[in-house]
């Protein structure tokens, strides 16, 4: 093999080495060769500790090392060396090449006493550990409520309810165990809430907020500089210069309170001075930059709205809550640990932390330092701080060989910390260690490499992606003679084409398609084009051949849209396969087999039984099942079968054979372990052989194997029995994936997530959903808790209806946003670098022309950091390079000089329509007439049969109080963007007053305080100015000064917008059904406790005529108040003594 100069350095270099290996650079080959060369120089295979990311990677590396050692032995003429190499090759399968968790397990088994472990311990798999955490959670909640019901409920309410609280606990608990000292980190995070203003002033959080604000100001200044360069108007330039001067002045301020005061004092001049008739296009750059500066300073003034004294007071008010949370987490940990100890298991976190504990014994640490002369770590960028501490404990001074690529670090959800890699990347300068960059790519075509470099050289740097995409990071072509292709297919969701270019039916169909369907159809048509017209250079043979379906993979950000793509590809006649969200639990063969286990456990379950009977296991036809159902009504299906089994005929014999098998399996279930039972049933039914013969049989068998492995793991646990196993499967199926590797043998288009594609390569990659917004943006804002190794815990506390966003929360959220955005960028890098021959990127956006026109400006860090999707980044690059010239010409812009690497295609939304599968009207009528003529009445009894529980089918599964009482919300008379300039309707006035009552501070009010509250809601974006002006201030003041308002103010507990879900009795509510239940949902506007009982207030916007008694209007809502009362009483166990309807139109409060 011919090695590059950098690869040679990595193979033969000495001392600690960090190998930054870009995608497709042959890092595994280099790692293997280095081990082989060291062995040839006299090292033993037992001298190496090699840590890989997966077991599959470890097995593959053992195989490669063994083969390479044997090959070297054939090349060697020295008999002693030859013998040594062959001996080590034979020992390669025993080499210490494993995942870090396997290394930890071996260490703990050897030193179980020092790790305080039972020598017979075993490692719980993810599913078993998840169920144990559920048990610990339930036990801890019960214990907390028993010991302090009021305190526990207050803690839960602070996180918005039980769901938010449980999510917060799980997030903190998972994160703390990614830290080397979990309880020390947790204690420190809690104590941060006990700081004073002076201590807060010097904190890392404040520095981070100031630095982040300065970075945003710098980006805004860059926009202003560009705007100034785009205009020669002296007056406009003067305003822009003034904007820059004020922003630059803010960047010089390092003190929090001084920055707060300065930001609030900034006044912007009015931007005008253009001559009459100046085109809007000529104004756009200046207006956009000026507006951005104004908005940014306004946001900063709001974000820095509290003084440090006020921030410290707010934090201190939450300190008791954080201490209670600390106590709860300690209790949860103890409960979880107790459950694991009883079962004799440890989880993966225990494995790491107990290994660290054992290695704190210097004697044990020295044992492993003496044992391993060389330590190799693959995929080092995916390590966490605990794993780093373990490696530090066993390393020598100069024996580390770390391989990875921080640009491919995409596992933050597994709490990987890429900053560990980055620290060494910038620190290994020849003193602490050496850094070698491998960037010659042997995987991809020149167009793919060019596209990757073009995109990331513009968007990835230390401020945006954590690493500078410079010459040392950029990919270099290592595969000769392959041009390949790089494409962007842009779908304008709002565009239009000439109607004479599109058929009328196609227009109607296109209007029903969403963005995702259009993207999938664009991909389908491109696949068909390439298979029909293009040739692919086969990397393995070097020869040209036609494309096959299996050459294509569709990569999506997540599997949520996989079903949409499957359907669209199928409609275009393209075979495709996608792994299910729930892993193999969702595959049809596993679901059928689990249903069979359900039937063995309990035969009186109609749906599982029917699915088994219709499968290859049962072998019943649909006609047979219909006959059984119609001839035995009012019974379970199994009872219908046993009744028919007593008759003569083929069907009866079939039923007898099936029920006899069920009898046999039920007996075995009492004697066998679950995995033994599954093996016996698979053997009895031949199901494994049956599914292997189906399309995708290899994958189907792998799915069943995964189920068998999960059953074997369950059988080794303390739990046992078939019923327990089914309950276990039900608990974990929605939260834990049942792993089975994806089949790659069939000639189908594969659909998978970008995460799943890591480490793989494909001839043609289709990157779909590029226009979808990053989900983390919303998740960060809504998450009840965020954790950070440096800043601790930032909670989003809920007091009443107000969410409390502390300064810690703001600092952690800003840091998390930057980290998540960098990870999204790395995900894009991973997706694009999977392609060997061709990368096809597809995305749809609304307002494409306007959006692209706005990108005609310098590409700044600010623009990169404000991007909300992959497509935003790609378009930023295209519109700033020659790659976007086809788009620029379409928009009437001047082209940019340079080479075009990424081909751009622009589509109109109306160009997409699903294939028309409808039957023509004439053909349908002809078919229907013929069928009617030959019908002999054989199914009359079937079609006239009436279901005996028909009333129950009228009961909805879920209903809101508003639907039930007939009080549905009115639709807004116009979209929001059309409201400006329109008169405020009565419905809008009522809505505005209603919103104010939900969010106004509960206190005695006068006109000024109400107006201040209205102003606050406008500033926070809850109220539009035009609606705010319509609110009757006197009415609001009157309510809070009324007897009912005073009672509300004096209450010790007030709830507003109280959502509820209540299992209501259909017989009571509807007067029908036989004891059926349905889910009643609703929201109570306001309720408060008085003398130990509830008082409910419902705000209504009804119009009240001059001569109409308010009582008459209020009584129309009695049914709704009745439902509120029943639900509130049932859910809280507290009686409702009074209900009031408060009429916002008149200000009257009426008791109903």
Task: Please describe the topology of this protein.
Elements: H1 5-12, E1 17-21, H2 27-40, E2 48-52, H3 55-75, H4 79-91, E3 96-99, H5 100-110, E4 122-123, H6 126-147, H7 149-158, H8 162-176, H9 182-191, H10 197-201, H11 204-229, H12 234-251, H13 256-265, H14 280-303, H15 308-343, E5 345-346, H16 348-359, H17 362-371, E6 374-377, H18 385-394, E7 400-404, H19 419-427, E8 434-438, E9 440-441, H20 446-459, E10 476-477, E11 485-492, H21 504-511, H22 515-533, E12 535-537, E13 544-546, E14 552-556, H23 562-571, E15 576-578, H24 588-601, H25 606-614, H26 622-630, H27 637-645, H28 650-671, H29 674-685, H30 687-692, H31 697-716, H32 722-732, E16 749-753, H33 754-757, E17 762-767, H34 775-782, E18 785-788, E19 792-799, E20 802-805, H35 807-832, E21 835-845, H36 848-854, H37 861-865, H38 870-878, H39 885-890, E22 903-908, H40 921-934, H41 940-944, H42 950-953, E23 958-960, H43 961-965, H44 986-999, H45 1007-1019, H46 1025-1028, H47 1033-1041, H48 1043-1050, E24 1054-1065, H49 1066-1070, E25 1077-1090, E26 1093-1100, H50 1110-1114, H51 1118-1132, E27 1136-1143, E28 1149-1151
Parallel strand pairs: 1-7, 1-8, 2-3, 2-6, 4-5, 6-7, 9-10, 11-21, 11-22, 14-16, 14-17, 15-16, 17-21, 23-25, 26-27
Antiparallel strand pairs: 12-13, 18-19, 19-20, 24-25, 25-26, 27-28
Helix pairs in contact: 1-2, 2-3, 3-4, 5-16, 6-7, 6-15, 7-8, 9-15, 11-12, 11-14, 11-35, 12-14, 13-14, 16-18, 20-38, 22-23, 24-25, 27-28, 29-31, 34-35, 47-48
């Amino acid at each position: 093999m011919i090695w590059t100069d950098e690869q040679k350095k990595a193979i033969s270099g000495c001392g600690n080495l960090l190998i930054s290996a870009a995608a497709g650079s042959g890092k595994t080959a280099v790692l293997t060769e280095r081990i082989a060369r060291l062995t040839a120089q006299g090292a033993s295979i037992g001298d190496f500790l090699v840590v890989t990311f997966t077991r599959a990677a470890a097995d593959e590396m053992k195989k490669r090392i063994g083969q390479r050692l044997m090959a070297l032995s054939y090349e060697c003429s020295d008999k002693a060396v030859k013998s040594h190499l062959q001996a080590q090759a034979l020992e390669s399968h025993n080499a210490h090449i494993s995942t870090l968790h396997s290394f930890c397990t071996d260490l703990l088994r050897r030193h179980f006493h020092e790790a305080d472990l039972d020598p017979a311990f075993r490692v719980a798999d993810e599913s078993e550990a998840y169920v144990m955490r559920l048990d610990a959670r339930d036990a801890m909640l019960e214990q907390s409520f028993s010991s302090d019901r009021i305190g526990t409920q207050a803690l839960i309410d602070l996180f918005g309810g039980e769901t938010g609280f449980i999510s917060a606990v799980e997030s903190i608990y998972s994160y703390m165990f990614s830290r080397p000292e979990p309880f020390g980190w947790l204690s420190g995070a809690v104590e941060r809430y006990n700081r004073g203003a002076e201590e807060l002033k010097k904190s890392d959080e404040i520095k981070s907020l100031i630095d982040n604000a300065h970075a945003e100001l710098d980006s805004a200044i860059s926009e202003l500089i560009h705007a100034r360069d785009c205009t020669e108007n002296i007056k406009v330039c003067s305003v822009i210069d003034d904007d820059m001067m004020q922003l630059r002045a803010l960047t010089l301020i390092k003190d929090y309170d001084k920055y707060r005061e300065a930001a609030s004092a900034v006044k912007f001049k009015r931007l005008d001075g253009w001559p009459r008739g100046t085109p809007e296009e000529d104004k756009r750059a200046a207006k956009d930059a000026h507006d951005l500066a104004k908005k940014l300073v306004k946001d900063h003034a709001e974000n820095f709205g509290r003084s440090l004294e006020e921030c410290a007071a707010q934090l201190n008010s939450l300190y008791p809550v954080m201490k209670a949370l600390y106590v709860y987490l300690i209790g949860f940990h103890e409960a979880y640990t107790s459950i694991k100890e009883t079962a004799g298991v440890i989880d993966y976190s225990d494995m790491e932390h107990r290994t660290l504990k054992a290695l704190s014994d210097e004697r044990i640490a020295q044992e492993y330092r003496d044992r391993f002369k060389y330590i190799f770590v693959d995929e080092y960028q995916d390590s966490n701080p605990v794993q780093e501490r373990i490696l530090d404990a066993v390393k020598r001074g100069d024996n580390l060989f770390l391989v990875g690529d921080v640009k491919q670090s995409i596992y933050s959800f597994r709490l990987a910390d890429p900053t560990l890699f980055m620290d060494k990347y910038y620190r290994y300068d020849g003193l602490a260690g050496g850094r070698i960059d491998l960037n010659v790519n042997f995987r991809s075509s020149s167009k793919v490499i060019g596209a990757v470099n073009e995109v990331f050289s513009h968007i990835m740097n230390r401020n945006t992606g954590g690493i500078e995409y410079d010459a040392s990071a950029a990919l270099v072509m290592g595969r000769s003679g392959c041009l390949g292709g790089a494409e962007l297919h842009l779908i304008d969701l709002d565009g239009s084409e000439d109607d004479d270019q599109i058929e009328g039916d196609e227009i109607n169909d296109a209007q029903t398609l969403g963005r995702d369907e259009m993207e999938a159809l664009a991909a389908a048509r491109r696949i068909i084009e390439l298979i029909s017209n293009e040739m692919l250079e086969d990397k393995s043979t070097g020869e040209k051949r036609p494309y096959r379906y299996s050459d294509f993979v569709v990569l999506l950000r997540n599997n949520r849209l996989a079903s949409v793509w499957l359907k669209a590809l199928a409609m275009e006649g393209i075979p495709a396969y996608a792994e299910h969200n729930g892993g193999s639990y969702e595959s049809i063969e596993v679901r059928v087999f689990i249903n069979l286990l359900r039937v063995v456990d309990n035969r009186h379950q109609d749906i599982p039984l029917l699915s088994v009977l219709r499968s290859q296991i049962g072998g019943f036809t649909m006609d047979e099942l219909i006959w059984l159902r119609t001839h035995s009504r009012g019974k379970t299906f199994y009872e219908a079968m046993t009744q028919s089994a007593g008759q003569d005929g083929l069907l009866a014999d079939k039923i007898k054979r099936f029920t006899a098998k069920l009898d046999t399996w039920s007996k075995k279930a009492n004697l066998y372990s679950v995995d033994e039972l599954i093996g016996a049933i698979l053997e009895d039914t031949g199901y494994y052989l049956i599914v292997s013969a189906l399309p995708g049989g290899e994958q189907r068998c792998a799915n069943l194997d995964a189920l068998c492995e999960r059953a074997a793991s369950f059988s080794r646990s303390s739990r046992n029995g078939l019923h327990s196993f089914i309950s276990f499967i039900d608990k974990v199926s929605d939260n834990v994936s049942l792993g089975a590797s994806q089949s790659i043998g069939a000639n189908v288009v594969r659909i998978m997530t970008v995460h799943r594609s890591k480490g793989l390569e494909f001839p043609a990659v289709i990157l779909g959903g590029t226009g979808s917004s990053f989900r983390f943006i919303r998740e960060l804002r809504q998450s009840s808790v965020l954790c950070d190794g440096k800043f601790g815990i930032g909670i989003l506390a809920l007091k009443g209806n107000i969410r409390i966003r502390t300064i810690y929360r703001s600092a952690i959220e800003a840091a998390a946003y930057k980290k998540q955005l960098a990870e999204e960028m790395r995900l894009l890098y991973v997706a694009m670098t999977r392609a060997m021959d061709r990368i096809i990127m597809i995305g749809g956006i609304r307002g494409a022309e306007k959006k692209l026109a706005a990108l005609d400006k310098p590409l700044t860090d600010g623009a990169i950091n404000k991007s909300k999707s992959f497509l935003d980044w790609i378009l930023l690059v295209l519109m700033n390079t020659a790659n976007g010239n086809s788009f620029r010409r379409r928009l009437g812009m001047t082209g940019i000089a340079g080479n075009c690497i990424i081909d751009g295609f622009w589509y109109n939304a109306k160009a997409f329509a699903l294939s028309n599968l409808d039957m023509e009207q004439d053909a349908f009528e002809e078919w229907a007439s013929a069928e009617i003529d030959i019908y002999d009445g054989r199914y009359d009894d079937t079609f006239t049969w009436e279901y005996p529980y028909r009333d129950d089918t009228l009961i909805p599964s879920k209903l809101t109080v508003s639907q039930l009482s007939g009080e549905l919300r009115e639709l807004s008379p116009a979209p929001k963007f059309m409201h400006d300039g329109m008169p405020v309707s009565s419905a809008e006035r009522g809505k505005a007053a209603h919103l104010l009552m939900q969010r106004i501070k509960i206190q005695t009010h006068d006109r000024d305080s109400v107006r201040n509250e209205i102003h606050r809601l406008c500033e926070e974006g809850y109220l539009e100015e035009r609606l705010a002006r319509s609110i009757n201030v006197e009415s609001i003041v009157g309510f809070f000064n009324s007897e009912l308002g005073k009672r509300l103010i004096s209450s010790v507990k007030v709830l507003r917008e109280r959502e509820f879900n209540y299992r209501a009795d259909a017989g009571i509510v509807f007067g029908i059904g036989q004891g059926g239940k349905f889910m009643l949902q609703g929201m109570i506007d306001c309720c408060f406790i008085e003398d130990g009982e509830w008082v409910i207030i419902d705000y209504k916007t009804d119009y009240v005529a001059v001569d109409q008694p308010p009582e008459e209007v209020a009584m129309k809502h009695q049914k709704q108040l009745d439902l509120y009362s029943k639900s509130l009483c049932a859910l809280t166990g507290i009686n409702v003594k009074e209900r009031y309807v408060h009429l916002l139109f008149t200000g009257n409060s009426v008791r109903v």
